Amino acid sequence: MENLLRPLIVVGGSVMLTLVIGWATDFLLRKADERHHETPLWGLLRRGRIPYMLVLCAALLRGSYDEAQLLPSRDEAVGRVLTLVLIGSAAWLVIRIAAAIVETSYSRYASARAHRDPARVRRVRTQVTLIMRVVSAIVGVVAAASMLLTFPAFRAAGASLLASAGILGIVAGVAAQSTLSNMFAGFQIAFGDMVRMGDTVVVDGEWGTVEEITLTYLTVHTWDERRITMPVSYFTSQPFENWSRGGPQMTGTVFWHVDHTAPLDAMREKLRDILRECPAWDGRAYNLSVTDTTPNTMQVRALVTAKDADDIWTVRVTVREQMVGWLADEHPYALPRVNTADAILPPSFDGNGQHPSSEAIPTQQRRYHGNGSGRPER
Question: From residue 288, how far is each of 96, 243, 257, 268, 323 by CA, in Å?
Fold first, then answer.
């Protein structure tokens, strides 16, 4: 009877003590979060309550395991399992605590500089994301190594593994060359400020916004809701357009082909009126000028400005649509058309197509002019 009650008491007591301590800790964190609204640290720390309770329970069971004598025939196996659970839950808890601290620091920085320097905020966000991924990877590797070292076979093989570490490192480096290059490219992107999360980029002719950056790949969210995943090494070896680099403000162009008689001054006034009624226009600048001519039309270009890539698209389509509608309603003659009217002769020719001084030309000479063949008319 004693052999049955002792394990039950120890296990039940450990579980109950874990629940009480976990509830008390969560209660204190919740009260601190309600009292300090200026920092999200306490609310973020509450996300680690599950690994925290696992660490408590595993530590209590592992500490009282020898006294409780749980499953005497399998003492070593049960103790090793508890140790593995303790190491894994501790690594999980460390990652959650690190994420809470890093996220709190970023939130304070972003709230202080979001309105003054949004590009800098996106850069810090990219760096923070990659740093957390590196920290998680390091903690995971250390935890896995600690778990392996709990097995005597792995401890005995440690010396031979260290002796062959040089050869294994060379082989692994050759085998993982592309992966390592992507990892180093990820660090170069994060700390070299080449591209940041939220930047508007054009890659291989595709326009979109950088949605995610990892150590090995980068995801671009296109305007038509597609996701393009590319290795980060592409951005360190190939040219690409970053429309958010140096500031999100942009200048856009709108082109029309109109008739040569189009009222340019009236079009400039109409462009000004359209922009004043367009919320996406940032009010910095606008212009309208003739940039090219053809035998049938002339090309008119309007320059407009906006605060970012999304707004410049809105301004361009608004100006193009409203200007064409205004020309069709108020100045239809200014739209391109095929000219089928009779040609206007130069003033040096009369109505019969003859030069006014043709009477003074001798008949013989006029015959040479008439057929253009170089021979007199018969």
Answer: 56, 23, 13, 6, 12
